[in-house]
C-alpha cells in the first residue's frame, strides 16, 4: 500500500517527492501530484526512461487539472528488480502498480514504448483504463516497429561521438527548428536539481530493445474489441516509430479521435509542440 495520496497543488514536477509502493514483488518508485480525483492520469514513459525523463511542462499542465502519476518500470531508476524481457511482462507490472495504489480505473497518457505497454495492459485488464492517449507509438506487429532497435543503437553511437544526449537525435528533426526544440526539451529535463532519480543501466537498454524487437515481430492484437476513447498523436517525421504507424494504430481502435500530427517534428512531437498538444489532450481527458 502507498503511504500517502497525491501531493498538494503546491508542488511542480521539479519538486514533487518520489514515493514508493510495493507490488508484484517489487518496490516501485513513483511521483504523484495535482488535483485529487477518482480517476488519475498514469503516464507510461519511453525506452530507458526514468522519472526524470518526464517533460515537466506536460506533467505540470495536467496536474493543474488532474491528478497525474509517473512511475519507473521494473529495474529502471529507483524501482527494484531486473528489467523485464517482454512488453507483456511490463504491462503486468503496471497493472500491479496501479492496483497497489488502490485505483480501479485510470486514464493513460503513453509515449513510445509506453504505448506498447498500454496495448498489452488492455489485453489483460481492459476495464482498468478509461481514456487513452497514445503518442509516438504503434501497434504490435506494425511494419517498422522492430526497426526501433537499429535506429536507437545508431543514434546512441552518434550521441557518444558528439557528446549529446541521444534524445537530441532520436526525438527531434535535425534542422534548426528541431535542434532548437531538442535543446529546450533537454533543458526542461534538468529543471529538477534535487532528489533526482537513479540513472538507468546499460543492461536495461539492451533488454528493453530486445523486448521491443520481439513485440514488433509478434502477431498483431485485435484492438477492435476495445471501445475506449483513444487519442493518437505524433510528429510528421518520426524516425523511431514511423509516423504512418500512428494512423495504423488509430484505425484499429473503433473510438479513436482524428490523429494529431505535428509538422516539422519527429518522435518527440508532443514535446516540441507541448502547448498545442496539451490543449487537445486536456480537452480529451476532461470532456
Automatic annotation (TrEMBL):
Domain AB hydrolase-1, residue spans: 40-270
Keywords per UniProt: Hydrolase
GO molecular function, one term: hydrolase activity
Entry's EC annotation: 3.5.1.-
InterPro entries: AB_hydrolase, AB_hydrolase_1, AB_hydrolase_fold
Annotated protein name in UniProt: Aminoacrylate hydrolase RutD
Amino acid at each position: 500500500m502507498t503511504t500517502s495520496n497525491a501531493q498538494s497543488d503546491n508542488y511542480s514536477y521539479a519538486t514533487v517527492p518520489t514515493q514508493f509502493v510495493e507490488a508484484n514483488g517489487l518496490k516501485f518508485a513513483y511521483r504523484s501530484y495535482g488535483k485529487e480525483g477518482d480517476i488519475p492520469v498514469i503516464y507510461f514513459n519511453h525506452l530507458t526512461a526514468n522519472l526524470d525523463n518526464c517533460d515537466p511542462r506536460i506533467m505540470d499542465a495536467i496536474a493543474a487539472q488532474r491528478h497525474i502519476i509517473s512511475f519507473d518500470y521494473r529495474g529502471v531508476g529507483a524501482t527494484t528488480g531486473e528489467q523485464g524481457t517482454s512488453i507483456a511482462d511490463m504491462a503486468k507490472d503496471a497493472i500491479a502498480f496501479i492496483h497497489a495504489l488502490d485505483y480501479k480505473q485510470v486514464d493513460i497518457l503513453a509515449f513510445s514504448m509506453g504505448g506498447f505497454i498500454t496495448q498489452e495492459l488492455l489485453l489483460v485488464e481492459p476495464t482498468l483504463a478509461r481514456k487513452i492517449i497514445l503518442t509516438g507509438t504503434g501497434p504490435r506487429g506494425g511494419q517498422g516497429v522492430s526497426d526501433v532497435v537499429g535506429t536507437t543503437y545508431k543514434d546512441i553511437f552518434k550521441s557518444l561521438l558528439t557528446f549529446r544526449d541521444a534524445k537530441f537525435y532520436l526525438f527531434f528533426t535535425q534542422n534548426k527548428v528541431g535542434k532548437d526544440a531538442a535543446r529546450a526539451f533537454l533543458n526542461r529535463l534538468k529543471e529538477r536539481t534535487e532528489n533526482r532519480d537513479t540513472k538507468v543501466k546499460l543492461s536495461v537498454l539492451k533488454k528493453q530493445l530486445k523486448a521491443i524487437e520481439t513485440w514488433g515481430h509478434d502477431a498483431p492484437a485485435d484492438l477492435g474489441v476495445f471501445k475506449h476513447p483513444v487519442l493518437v498523436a505524433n510528429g510528421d517525421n518520426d524516425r523511431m516509430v514511423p509516423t504512418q504507424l500512428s494512423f495504423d494504430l488509430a484505425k484499429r481502435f473503433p473510438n479513436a479521435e482524428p490523429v494529431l500530427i505535428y509538422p516539422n517534428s519527429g518522435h518527440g512531437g508532443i514535446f516540441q509542440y507541448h502547448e498545442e498538444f496539451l490543449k487537445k489532450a486536456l480537452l480529451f481527458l476532461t470532456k
